[in-house]
Amino acid sequence: MFLQFWLNSVAVVLGLIEALFSNNAMIADPPPLGSLRLATPDDVMRLGVVCTASFYYSEEFTWERIYHDQYPQSTIVHYRHEAVEFINEPEFIALVIEDDYDTDESSKTNATIPDDNGWEPPENGTKVIVGLGVWKLESGSKRIGQFQNLTGNFPDLPEYDHKDVDKKRTEDFAQIVEAAEKKYIHGLPAMERIAVHPAYWKRGHGTQLAKWGVKLSDIDGTDQGVLANSMGQRLFEHVGYDLLDVVSVPGDARNREGTDFAVLKHTAQPHEDQVA
Fold first, then answer.
1. Alpha-helix residue ranges (DSSP H) falling in 89-204
2. Span 177-206, average pLDDT
3. Is the Cα dihedral 168, 66, 101, 33 positive or negative?
4. Which pTM was predicted?
5. 86 Cβ neighbours under 8 A, 6+ residues apart
6. Which positions ≥6 away from 143 have C-beta within 8 Å?
7. Quick one: pLDDT at residue 14?
8. Does residue 90 contact residue 148 with C-beta atoms inside 8 Å?
């Protein structure tokens, strides 16, 4: 009886080992990163600057962050907290791209970037992060946890105080976004963020980040969704996304025209590395 129990236990263990190796074998290699790399905890302070400088030009930013000029550090802290989540949580993929630092970069964005924002700029020409791409994997994806680099230390950030935003606009916008996601891209992996500092625009950084996500979608045979501002919409259509809808956000007493955002989807294309 003991022998039978032992044999059954061994069989269970061997079955688990076989299943583990089988699942790993079914995951195709992701696209090569090339000049991209995984974001790390040490990147958080810089990412707050890059995202603030970039997202300033989005319709969502203009709609929600109406007090940014008065409280620019609040905006930067918000994006730093987002960066911590994207780097730390295993369902996200956070990739960055670097370029030679331009000491005049703050003059090349209309966003307000205080000199004492907490990030120490290097010498001119030093490689710095200039762009960020973030994807959220679908529930149950075998790739969850595959794209993390937690080397380094997360900074000790102050709490985000929400002073830069109109809270009602933010809450209303979030509800409309949630409804659009459920209607059009529910259950799909999604492009969550793409940002390039304006001082480094027109160098192909945004395209390189977006194309990496498209290649991953094709390799995995899984469609990919995104909600985008007007500038992002042009980029995503350029790399292979199709426009599904433009969703309107109703105006208010301050701005009766309101705003809008685009919903797009990339349909996965057959790929030679695709696993059946």
1. 167-184
2. 97
3. positive
4. 0.89
5. 39, 92, 94, 134, 192, 193
6. 27, 30, 93, 137, 220
7. 40
8. yes
